[in-house]
Amino acid sequence: MIRFANFHSHVRKIPLSVPASIRDEDISRLEHAWFGPRFCSQRRNGVSLFVGGRSGLECLLHLQYAPNASIHVIEPDPALYASLSGLLGQDQRVTLHNDLDGFLQNKQDIEVLDFVRVDDAHYFTVWKLIKHFQIRALATEISFSDSIYNVSEQLRPHIPFLYLAHASGRGRGFDKPRPKIAVSVIVPAYGVAAQLPQCLDSLVNQTLDELEIIVVDDGSPDKCGEIADGYAARYPGRVVVVHKANGGCASARNAGMDVAKGQFIGFVDGDDWVTHDMYADLYKMTIEDAADVAQGGYKFAYEGGVTKDSDDIYAGNLGIFKRSGVVEQPQLLLTGQPTIWRRIYDRELLIENGIRFPEHIKRFDDLPFQFEALSIARRISTTAQPYYFYRQGRVGQDILAKDEKLFVHFEIFDYLKTRIISRMRADVISQLLRVELNTHAWALGRIDKHLVSDYTARAIRSLHDGYEVLSTKHKYVILASVGPDAAELLQNALRLKKSSQSAAFLK
């Protein structure tokens, strides 16, 4: 809640002729920043315009915080106009108008409006104002039927600072112009020449115009590089190719991130493909919900054109099954299967938090990236609409491994513990423990029998080390909520802790 100096003294000045409902709504709106963080001119001698004067409370605050600015108020309602005249009519800094035409006729030499606030009922005046003035900041209310995305697309080219208060209670501010590239999609390509054309066809035909496709040829031994160059020649500006020596999928994705220019970043594996509306829809979701991450659904794709719905985690706030909307508890997504390619991520957020793919980890590098990115996302928007087709059964996929390759999990969690435990909340660390438990349980369910004993011993040790910040009681709560295989691993780790404590006591 916002606190204003002398706020209640201003409230007491509101004439009794103003309906209590309008007065109380204005109080609530100001305290909760209904029209965003700006409520007055940011310039010492700026000019502000309120279209819909309401109770006059906003004007009183404006006069307090920008005492040298001038204010124009348009109020067509005769009763409210009379109340505003009694409240503000004697102040030479304030000029009242009955309608927009009256303001335009008497605007004198005004060319710039430093701050404009427009009520929903008067939204139609916005375009007339844009035609006549340079507007530095606009806060306006839009109705249920209006889309934040659509209105912002129309207004952002004209106004440097824009705040849209949606009648649903959502609001969104924009202080930057619409990006030239909204989304950069990174496609690591190695040994997928047979599947790469289908992947790239699905991307070059995206309905989002402001999209760049970055294909990273990771020293592929087949024709991936040639195929990518061919698409770049056919789609200049839309397809960018990076050729590099082979370094693994993590290094390829990082190379793509290094050259990406989009506001958001997405990833598509070179052997998968997406629907043509995926990135337009996800980008709209980030705008509508002011989200750092937008997530869609996906399908498993098998040879012969067979697809199967995924077993997904639904965590939105809309509908009976919570299949869409804002994820109000982002930590619920942290334990899901690594599916980095179904999302777009705010690029600045990744850069600010140093989130990249760990190149020393040669497989399953998507697990640490997903966990870190989702753990720091302030707002996540989701839909169950399936956009992504995740190919199954291709020879060479890491997910098919059953041998020593699975021991990479210990490198992964050593890396994540150093990144997460020292700087994250207990609920995130708790989810990291759950992810490690589930990962080891999954690995032990498929690893070659002669490796089970060694893997189990290392898993117990890994689960014992590094989670001291979580209490034993907390760990027993986790124990009761995981599957039997994971529970057995954690039980053994807890026993190891007790034996270590006993040994230390005896010494």
TrEMBL record:
Pfam families reported in the protein's UniProt record: Glycos_transf_2
InterPro entries associated with the record: Glyco_trans_2-like (IPR001173), Nucleotide-diphossugar_trans (IPR029044)
Domain Glycosyltransferase 2-like: residue ranges: 184-314
PANTHER family (alphabetical): GLYCOSYLTRANSFERASE, UDP-GLCNAC:BETAGAL BETA-1,3-N-ACETYLGLUCOSAMINYLTRANSFERASE-LIKE PROTEIN 1
Protein's name according to its UniProt entry: Glycosyltransferase
Protein source organism: Asaia spathodeae
